[in-house]
Amino acid sequence: MKKRTLVLGASLNPTRYSNIAIKRLRSNGIETLALGAREGRVGNVTIEVEKKLFSDIDTVTLYLNPERQKEYYDYIVSLQPQRVIFNPGTENVELIKKLENHGIKAEIACTLVLLSTRQY
Q1: 47, 65, 67: which is closest to 6 by C-alpha?
Q2: Are the CB atoms for 110 and 87 separated by under 8 Å?
Q3: 112 SS3 class
Q4: Which among 112, 89, 113 is positioned nearest to 23, based on CA atoms?
Q5: What's 71's DSSP letter?
Q6: What is the pLDDT tens value at each position of the chain, 120 positions in all?
Q7: In what order do the strands lie in the sheet with 83-86?
Q8: Which end of the chain is more exposed for a tag (fewer CB within 10 A), N or C?
Q9: Residue (of 13, 39, 10, 15) closest to 25 by Cα position
Q10: pLDDT of res. 3
């Protein structure tokens, strides 16, 4: 396993991009954790609803709109990830500045594209 990733905004709905991302991350051998509004499972990944202090997070990949991200600002910083991926529709200048002030790389990209082009 490599690049332990937290999917923030995970959904049980198989048509949602966060759900597809969980499946693709796992199929690429990436240890995946998930946090969402509803508890459940996507394959062998449990979607948590509590803000657990996960350790050794390399990447947080966001699937929350900027307004919904606000309650997670401090939580994301507390995880001390190497990077945060802002998937399409999640771009947020305020959070990007906060991350950069804490030495966390902010990347505006698409997790699914990064995986499919082997750039993840």
Answers
A1: 47
A2: yes
A3: helix
A4: 112
A5: G
A6: 468 999 999 999 999 999 999 999 999 999 999 999 999 999 999 999 999 999 999 999 999 999 999 999 999 999 999 999 999 999 999 999 999 999 999 999 999 999 999 999
A7: 40-42, 45-48, 30-36, 2-10, 59-62, 83-86, 105-108
A8: N
A9: 10
A10: 85
Distance between start and end Cα atoms, the chain: 13
Task: Give the chain's length.
Answer: 120
Average pLDDT, rounded, for the chain: 96
The amino acid at 10:
A
What DSSP string runs through 10-62?
E-S-TTSHHHHHHHHHHHTTEEEEEEESS-EEETTEEEE-S----SS--EEEE
